[in-house]
Amino acid sequence: MHPNPLFRSEDREVFEALIDQIGFGMVFLTTPDGPRVAHTPLMSTGDGAVQFHLARGNALARHLDGATALVTVNGPDAYVSPRWYDNRDTVPTWDYVALEMEGRVRRMAPEGLEAFLHAIIEKHETRMGGEPWQATETSETTWSKLFRGIVGFEMEVQAWRPTFKLSQKKSDAERARIADGQTTAGRPAIAAMMGMPGV
Protein backbone atom coordinates (compact mmCIF):
# COMPACT_ATOMS: atom_id res chain seq x y z
CA MET A 1 0.00 0.00 0.00
CA HIS A 2 1.28 3.48 -0.86
CA PRO A 3 2.15 5.37 2.35
CA ASN A 4 0.40 8.61 1.33
CA PRO A 5 -3.06 8.76 3.03
CA LEU A 6 -4.30 10.87 0.12
CA PHE A 7 -4.40 7.68 -1.96
CA ARG A 8 -6.54 5.66 0.48
CA SER A 9 -10.27 5.10 0.71
CA GLU A 10 -12.59 3.65 3.32
CA ASP A 11 -15.40 3.00 0.84
CA ARG A 12 -16.14 -0.73 0.98
CA GLU A 13 -18.53 -0.41 -1.97
CA VAL A 14 -15.60 0.72 -4.11
CA PHE A 15 -13.52 -2.25 -2.88
CA GLU A 16 -16.33 -4.68 -3.65
CA ALA A 17 -16.80 -3.12 -7.11
CA LEU A 18 -13.08 -3.53 -7.83
CA ILE A 19 -13.13 -7.21 -6.86
CA ASP A 20 -16.26 -7.71 -8.94
CA GLN A 21 -14.93 -5.90 -12.02
CA ILE A 22 -11.43 -7.41 -12.03
CA GLY A 23 -12.42 -10.86 -10.78
CA PHE A 24 -8.82 -12.04 -10.58
CA GLY A 25 -6.04 -11.67 -8.04
CA MET A 26 -3.00 -13.08 -6.32
CA VAL A 27 -2.77 -14.99 -3.05
CA PHE A 28 0.48 -14.66 -1.11
CA LEU A 29 1.71 -16.82 1.76
CA THR A 30 5.04 -17.62 3.35
CA THR A 31 5.30 -21.42 3.40
CA PRO A 32 7.94 -23.72 4.92
CA ASP A 33 9.42 -23.77 1.41
CA GLY A 34 9.60 -19.96 1.23
CA PRO A 35 7.25 -17.23 -0.03
CA ARG A 36 4.76 -18.34 -2.68
CA VAL A 37 2.08 -16.68 -4.81
CA ALA A 38 -0.89 -18.14 -6.65
CA HIS A 39 -2.90 -16.41 -9.38
CA THR A 40 -6.61 -17.17 -9.24
CA PRO A 41 -10.15 -16.03 -10.03
CA LEU A 42 -11.74 -14.27 -7.04
CA MET A 43 -15.29 -13.65 -5.97
CA SER A 44 -16.51 -11.59 -3.04
CA THR A 45 -19.21 -13.08 -0.83
CA GLY A 46 -20.51 -9.57 -0.15
CA ASP A 47 -20.13 -9.96 3.60
CA GLY A 48 -16.41 -9.44 4.10
CA ALA A 49 -14.93 -12.58 2.57
CA VAL A 50 -13.41 -13.57 -0.76
CA GLN A 51 -13.49 -17.02 -2.33
CA PHE A 52 -11.05 -18.62 -4.74
CA HIS A 53 -9.79 -21.98 -5.89
CA LEU A 54 -6.39 -23.45 -6.64
CA ALA A 55 -5.14 -26.54 -8.40
CA ARG A 56 -4.66 -29.27 -5.82
CA GLY A 57 -0.98 -29.48 -6.78
CA ASN A 58 -0.38 -25.73 -6.32
CA ALA A 59 2.46 -24.98 -3.88
CA LEU A 60 0.06 -23.02 -1.64
CA ALA A 61 -2.85 -25.47 -1.56
CA ARG A 62 -1.61 -27.61 1.32
CA HIS A 63 -0.59 -24.62 3.48
CA LEU A 64 -3.53 -22.22 3.26
CA ASP A 65 -6.14 -23.83 5.52
CA GLY A 66 -5.99 -21.94 8.85
CA ALA A 67 -3.24 -19.57 7.69
CA THR A 68 -3.28 -15.78 7.49
CA ALA A 69 -2.73 -14.82 3.86
CA LEU A 70 -2.61 -11.74 1.67
CA VAL A 71 -4.81 -11.41 -1.41
CA THR A 72 -4.26 -8.59 -3.90
CA VAL A 73 -6.36 -7.27 -6.75
CA ASN A 74 -4.68 -5.04 -9.31
CA GLY A 75 -6.87 -2.49 -11.02
CA PRO A 76 -5.96 -0.28 -13.95
CA ASP A 77 -2.54 1.38 -14.04
CA ALA A 78 -0.73 3.77 -16.38
CA TYR A 79 2.41 5.83 -16.86
CA VAL A 80 1.81 9.55 -16.20
CA SER A 81 3.79 11.94 -18.39
CA PRO A 82 4.90 15.40 -17.23
CA ARG A 83 3.64 16.64 -20.61
CA TRP A 84 0.20 16.90 -18.94
CA TYR A 85 1.42 19.07 -16.04
CA ASP A 86 1.48 22.86 -15.78
CA ASN A 87 5.14 22.64 -14.74
CA ARG A 88 7.14 20.19 -16.85
CA ASP A 89 10.23 20.62 -14.65
CA THR A 90 9.54 17.39 -12.77
CA VAL A 91 9.62 13.62 -13.37
CA PRO A 92 7.09 11.03 -14.60
CA THR A 93 5.11 8.87 -12.22
CA TRP A 94 2.69 5.94 -12.35
CA ASP A 95 -0.97 6.01 -11.39
CA TYR A 96 -2.55 2.76 -10.26
CA VAL A 97 -5.33 1.11 -8.33
CA ALA A 98 -4.64 -1.84 -6.04
CA LEU A 99 -6.39 -3.54 -3.16
CA GLU A 100 -4.65 -5.66 -0.54
CA MET A 101 -6.75 -7.88 1.73
CA GLU A 102 -5.35 -9.76 4.70
CA GLY A 103 -7.21 -12.44 6.58
CA ARG A 104 -7.65 -15.95 7.83
CA VAL A 105 -8.19 -18.63 5.20
CA ARG A 106 -10.30 -21.76 5.54
CA ARG A 107 -10.71 -24.61 3.13
CA MET A 108 -14.18 -24.88 1.65
CA ALA A 109 -16.28 -28.01 1.88
CA PRO A 110 -17.00 -29.67 -1.49
CA GLU A 111 -20.54 -28.25 -1.60
CA GLY A 112 -19.18 -24.74 -1.00
CA LEU A 113 -16.65 -25.16 -3.80
CA GLU A 114 -19.38 -26.47 -6.10
CA ALA A 115 -21.57 -23.41 -5.35
CA PHE A 116 -18.62 -21.06 -5.89
CA LEU A 117 -17.78 -22.61 -9.27
CA HIS A 118 -21.37 -22.36 -10.53
CA ALA A 119 -21.66 -18.74 -9.31
CA ILE A 120 -18.41 -17.58 -10.90
CA ILE A 121 -19.16 -19.38 -14.18
CA GLU A 122 -22.61 -17.79 -14.36
CA LYS A 123 -21.24 -14.34 -13.54
CA HIS A 124 -18.58 -14.36 -16.25
CA GLU A 125 -20.68 -16.14 -18.89
CA THR A 126 -23.44 -13.54 -18.41
CA ARG A 127 -20.97 -10.68 -18.82
CA MET A 128 -19.80 -12.02 -22.17
CA GLY A 129 -23.24 -11.63 -23.71
CA GLY A 130 -24.66 -13.94 -26.31
CA GLU A 131 -25.49 -17.58 -25.69
CA PRO A 132 -23.85 -18.53 -22.37
CA TRP A 133 -22.06 -21.80 -21.83
CA GLN A 134 -23.72 -23.83 -19.07
CA ALA A 135 -21.89 -26.00 -16.54
CA THR A 136 -24.47 -28.69 -17.31
CA GLU A 137 -22.85 -29.08 -20.74
CA THR A 138 -19.96 -30.82 -18.99
CA SER A 139 -20.46 -34.53 -18.47
CA GLU A 140 -20.50 -35.84 -14.91
CA THR A 141 -17.30 -37.77 -15.65
CA THR A 142 -15.43 -34.69 -16.86
CA TRP A 143 -16.80 -32.41 -14.12
CA SER A 144 -15.91 -34.90 -11.37
CA LYS A 145 -12.40 -35.40 -12.72
CA LEU A 146 -11.70 -31.67 -12.89
CA PHE A 147 -13.44 -31.02 -9.56
CA ARG A 148 -11.14 -33.48 -7.81
CA GLY A 149 -8.14 -31.55 -9.14
CA ILE A 150 -8.94 -28.29 -7.35
CA VAL A 151 -9.36 -27.00 -3.80
CA GLY A 152 -11.66 -24.14 -2.76
CA PHE A 153 -10.82 -21.53 -0.14
CA GLU A 154 -12.53 -18.62 1.58
CA MET A 155 -10.66 -15.80 3.26
CA GLU A 156 -12.36 -13.70 5.92
CA VAL A 157 -10.90 -10.25 5.31
CA GLN A 158 -9.62 -8.71 8.54
CA ALA A 159 -7.71 -5.80 6.97
CA TRP A 160 -8.49 -3.87 3.77
CA ARG A 161 -5.55 -1.87 2.40
CA PRO A 162 -6.48 0.02 -0.77
CA THR A 163 -4.35 2.31 -2.92
CA PHE A 164 -6.05 4.62 -5.39
CA LYS A 165 -3.13 6.68 -6.70
CA LEU A 166 -4.86 8.80 -9.31
CA SER A 167 -2.94 12.09 -9.54
CA GLN A 168 -4.80 13.53 -6.53
CA LYS A 169 -1.88 15.90 -5.86
CA LYS A 170 -2.55 17.71 -9.11
CA SER A 171 -5.02 20.53 -9.81
CA ASP A 172 -8.46 19.78 -11.29
CA ALA A 173 -7.28 21.14 -14.67
CA GLU A 174 -4.18 18.94 -14.66
CA ARG A 175 -6.18 15.87 -13.62
CA ALA A 176 -8.59 16.53 -16.51
CA ARG A 177 -5.61 16.72 -18.92
CA ILE A 178 -4.15 13.53 -17.46
CA ALA A 179 -7.49 11.72 -17.84
CA ASP A 180 -7.83 12.94 -21.44
CA GLY A 181 -4.24 11.97 -22.16
CA GLN A 182 -4.75 8.48 -20.73
CA THR A 183 -7.87 7.99 -22.81
CA THR A 184 -6.03 9.09 -25.96
CA ALA A 185 -3.13 6.76 -25.04
CA GLY A 186 -5.52 3.80 -24.87
CA ARG A 187 -5.89 3.70 -21.08
CA PRO A 188 -9.57 4.66 -20.61
CA ALA A 189 -9.97 2.48 -17.49
CA ILE A 190 -7.55 4.55 -15.41
CA ALA A 191 -9.15 7.74 -16.73
CA ALA A 192 -12.59 6.49 -15.68
CA MET A 193 -11.30 5.66 -12.19
CA MET A 194 -10.11 9.25 -11.82
CA GLY A 195 -13.71 10.43 -12.03
CA MET A 196 -15.18 7.90 -9.59
CA PRO A 197 -16.65 9.18 -6.33
CA GLY A 198 -15.12 7.72 -3.19
CA VAL A 199 -11.55 7.61 -4.55
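Second entry:
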Amino acid sequence: MTMWVFGYGSLLWNPGFTPAETALGCLQGYHRSFCMRSIHHRGTEAEPGLVLALDEADQAACHGLALRVRVGQEAEVLDYLRERELVSSAYLEKCLSVGLSDGRLVEAVTYVIDPDHVQYCGGLPMEEQAQIIASAVGGRGANSDYLYNTATHLTELGIKDTDLDWLAERVRGLGA
Protein backbone atom coordinates (compact mmCIF):
# COMPACT_ATOMS: atom_id res chain seq x y z
CA MET A 1 0.00 0.00 0.00
CA THR A 2 1.25 3.47 -0.87
CA MET A 3 2.10 5.61 2.16
CA TRP A 4 1.59 9.36 2.10
CA VAL A 5 2.43 11.93 4.78
CA PHE A 6 0.71 15.34 5.02
CA GLY A 7 3.03 18.25 5.80
CA TYR A 8 1.73 21.60 6.98
CA GLY A 9 4.58 22.94 9.18
CA SER A 10 8.18 21.83 9.53
CA LEU A 11 7.58 18.77 7.33
CA LEU A 12 7.33 21.24 4.44
CA TRP A 13 10.98 22.24 4.77
CA ASN A 14 12.46 19.41 6.82
CA PRO A 15 10.63 16.15 6.17
CA GLY A 16 13.55 14.04 7.37
CA PHE A 17 13.17 11.64 4.44
CA THR A 18 13.36 11.90 0.67
CA PRO A 19 9.85 11.51 -0.75
CA ALA A 20 9.20 9.65 -3.98
CA GLU A 21 6.69 12.34 -4.94
CA THR A 22 5.29 15.57 -3.55
CA ALA A 23 1.98 17.19 -4.40
CA LEU A 24 0.05 20.15 -3.10
CA GLY A 25 -2.85 18.94 -1.02
CA CYS A 26 -5.79 20.08 1.06
CA LEU A 27 -7.05 18.55 4.28
CA GLN A 28 -10.65 19.37 5.15
CA GLY A 29 -11.85 19.87 8.74
CA TYR A 30 -8.57 21.20 10.19
CA HIS A 31 -6.66 24.47 10.18
CA ARG A 32 -2.97 25.19 10.68
CA SER A 33 -2.49 26.99 14.00
CA PHE A 34 0.18 27.84 16.57
CA CYS A 35 -1.87 25.95 19.16
CA MET A 36 0.76 23.71 20.74
CA ARG A 37 3.21 24.78 23.42
CA SER A 38 6.67 23.50 22.53
CA ILE A 39 8.70 22.30 25.49
CA HIS A 40 11.30 20.33 23.50
CA HIS A 41 12.06 21.58 19.99
CA ARG A 42 11.23 25.33 20.03
CA GLY A 43 11.00 26.11 23.73
CA THR A 44 11.59 24.64 27.16
CA GLU A 45 9.39 23.55 30.03
CA ALA A 46 10.33 26.79 31.83
CA GLU A 47 9.74 28.96 28.74
CA PRO A 48 7.59 27.13 26.19
CA GLY A 49 7.55 28.17 22.57
CA LEU A 50 4.76 27.58 20.08
CA VAL A 51 4.63 25.16 17.17
CA LEU A 52 2.06 24.53 14.52
CA ALA A 53 -0.54 21.84 14.78
CA LEU A 54 -3.68 20.94 12.93
CA ASP A 55 -6.63 22.03 15.03
CA GLU A 56 -9.97 20.47 14.14
CA ALA A 57 -12.71 22.93 13.21
CA ASP A 58 -15.91 22.88 11.18
CA GLN A 59 -15.60 24.44 7.72
CA ALA A 60 -11.79 24.60 8.07
CA ALA A 61 -9.29 23.52 5.44
CA CYS A 62 -5.51 23.33 5.52
CA HIS A 63 -3.41 23.55 2.39
CA GLY A 64 -0.06 21.81 2.58
CA LEU A 65 2.16 19.25 0.93
CA ALA A 66 1.51 15.55 0.52
CA LEU A 67 4.71 13.48 0.54
CA ARG A 68 4.69 9.98 -0.94
CA VAL A 69 7.05 7.61 0.85
CA ARG A 70 9.34 5.45 -1.27
CA VAL A 71 8.27 1.81 -1.53
CA GLY A 72 10.12 -0.23 1.05
CA GLN A 73 10.80 2.74 3.34
CA GLU A 74 7.36 2.89 4.96
CA ALA A 75 8.34 1.33 8.32
CA GLU A 76 11.55 3.34 8.56
CA VAL A 77 9.77 6.64 7.79
CA LEU A 78 6.92 5.88 10.18
CA ASP A 79 9.38 5.06 12.98
CA TYR A 80 11.25 8.30 12.29
CA LEU A 81 8.06 10.39 12.23
CA ARG A 82 6.76 8.85 15.44
CA GLU A 83 10.03 9.57 17.24
CA ARG A 84 9.99 13.15 15.96
CA GLU A 85 6.30 14.05 16.19
CA LEU A 86 5.11 12.04 19.18
CA VAL A 87 7.87 13.17 21.56
CA SER A 88 5.36 14.56 24.08
CA SER A 89 2.09 12.88 23.02
CA ALA A 90 0.48 16.23 22.17
CA TYR A 91 -0.04 15.10 18.59
CA LEU A 92 -2.36 12.31 17.55
CA GLU A 93 -1.36 10.24 14.55
CA LYS A 94 -4.25 9.84 12.13
CA CYS A 95 -4.69 8.58 8.61
CA LEU A 96 -6.82 11.23 6.89
CA SER A 97 -8.08 11.90 3.37
CA VAL A 98 -6.12 14.59 1.56
CA GLY A 99 -7.23 15.97 -1.79
CA LEU A 100 -4.28 16.50 -4.12
CA SER A 101 -4.07 19.37 -6.58
CA ASP A 102 -4.29 16.93 -9.52
CA GLY A 103 -7.62 15.56 -8.29
CA ARG A 104 -6.39 12.39 -6.57
CA LEU A 105 -7.64 11.61 -3.07
CA VAL A 106 -5.06 9.87 -0.86
CA GLU A 107 -4.96 8.65 2.71
CA ALA A 108 -2.07 10.37 4.49
CA VAL A 109 -0.41 9.95 7.86
CA THR A 110 -1.19 13.24 9.56
CA TYR A 111 -0.28 14.64 12.97
CA VAL A 112 -3.09 16.63 14.61
CA ILE A 113 -3.27 18.25 18.02
CA ASP A 114 -4.91 16.50 20.95
CA PRO A 115 -7.15 19.28 22.32
CA ASP A 116 -7.19 17.55 25.72
CA HIS A 117 -3.39 17.57 26.05
CA VAL A 118 -1.75 19.98 28.51
CA GLN A 119 0.33 21.53 25.70
CA TYR A 120 -2.76 22.54 23.70
CA CYS A 121 -3.31 26.31 23.69
CA GLY A 122 -5.75 26.99 20.86
CA GLY A 123 -7.23 30.46 20.57
CA LEU A 124 -4.27 32.48 21.86
CA PRO A 125 -4.46 36.07 20.62
CA MET A 126 -2.13 36.73 17.66
CA GLU A 127 -0.11 39.32 19.57
CA GLU A 128 0.52 36.86 22.40
CA GLN A 129 1.63 34.26 19.84
CA ALA A 130 4.06 36.78 18.33
CA GLN A 131 5.53 37.66 21.74
CA ILE A 132 6.10 34.00 22.60
CA ILE A 133 7.58 33.11 19.20
CA ALA A 134 9.91 36.12 19.26
CA SER A 135 11.65 35.01 22.45
CA ALA A 136 11.40 31.21 22.71
CA VAL A 137 14.36 28.91 21.97
CA GLY A 138 14.47 25.11 22.26
CA GLY A 139 16.54 22.09 21.34
CA ARG A 140 16.10 22.68 17.59
CA GLY A 141 16.69 26.42 17.76
CA ALA A 142 14.80 29.69 17.82
CA ASN A 143 11.03 29.59 17.61
CA SER A 144 11.20 32.51 15.17
CA ASP A 145 13.31 30.42 12.74
CA TYR A 146 10.58 27.76 12.74
CA LEU A 147 7.99 30.43 11.90
CA TYR A 148 10.12 32.03 9.18
CA ASN A 149 11.01 28.70 7.53
CA THR A 150 7.40 27.61 7.46
CA ALA A 151 6.09 30.95 6.15
CA THR A 152 8.80 31.07 3.46
CA HIS A 153 8.09 27.55 2.26
CA LEU A 154 4.35 28.13 2.15
CA THR A 155 4.96 31.19 -0.02
CA GLU A 156 7.32 29.21 -2.29
CA LEU A 157 4.61 26.57 -2.70
CA GLY A 158 2.03 29.24 -3.56
CA ILE A 159 0.06 28.63 -0.36
CA LYS A 160 -1.35 31.77 1.25
CA ASP A 161 -1.61 31.80 5.05
CA THR A 162 -2.49 35.27 6.27
CA ASP A 163 -2.01 34.40 9.95
CA LEU A 164 1.54 33.14 9.40
CA ASP A 165 2.34 36.11 7.19
CA TRP A 166 1.12 38.50 9.91
CA LEU A 167 3.05 36.62 12.60
CA ALA A 168 6.27 36.62 10.57
CA GLU A 169 6.03 40.37 10.01
CA ARG A 170 5.18 41.04 13.66
CA VAL A 171 7.94 38.80 15.05
CA ARG A 172 10.50 40.51 12.77
CA GLY A 173 9.20 43.82 14.11
CA LEU A 174 9.91 42.55 17.64
CA GLY A 175 13.55 42.06 16.65
CA ALA A 176 13.65 38.27 16.37
